[in-house]
Design a protein that fits this description.
- With 172 residues, the chain is of the alpha+beta class.
- The protein has three domains: 1-38, no CATH class; 43-74, no CATH class; 77-171, no CATH class.
- Helix content is 39%, strand content 24%.
- The chain is built from six helices and eight strands.
- It has helices spanning 29-37, 41-50, 58-74, 77-81, 83-92, 137-152; strands at 5-6, 8-9, 12-13, 19-20, 26-27, 102-112, 117-124, 159-171.
- It is elongated.
Amino acid sequence: MTDIKPLYINGKRDKARRYVLPTGEIISRRQYIKITEGVSPEEKAVRRYEAGISKAGVTVKKYLRKKKTREDIKKPATELWGDEDRRIREKIMPTGGERGYYQLKGKYRFYHTKFRSYADSTGYSTADDVKHSFGSPNYLILRRQAIMNAVAKLDGYEWKYIGVIEETWLLW
């Protein structure tokens, strides 16, 4: 093991808790943990959470959310929204009786500018007694409501709307 020492400035420990390598190079605390323990601080936090030693903090939630987003992007769209999936969803989620109201349900894709990640979210519009045709002003209003509802379900701000994955009308 190399002889890595903590960095002292004017006799006091460095506020950033940096370290000095034997070559004289200054490294961050994060680099020190990677060198000595072989894992990143995030991976350490996730391992502690999975072992039941600690609660899911901000680091763990962020790590798991990014992992889930990466897995969702890797799945092909046909697997998510195939005809078989649609038939299964309709059997599982009955409307509970038709009352003549229509609601737009959509799955939309968003992009986070800061973290450079993609996310999909489902949103719903308010119910209306008319099933509007695509392109009509009322349809566009209902779509905007569904998009706003979907982005509100995502964590944080700065999500930019990319496009529609699927839209369907729910009959209530």
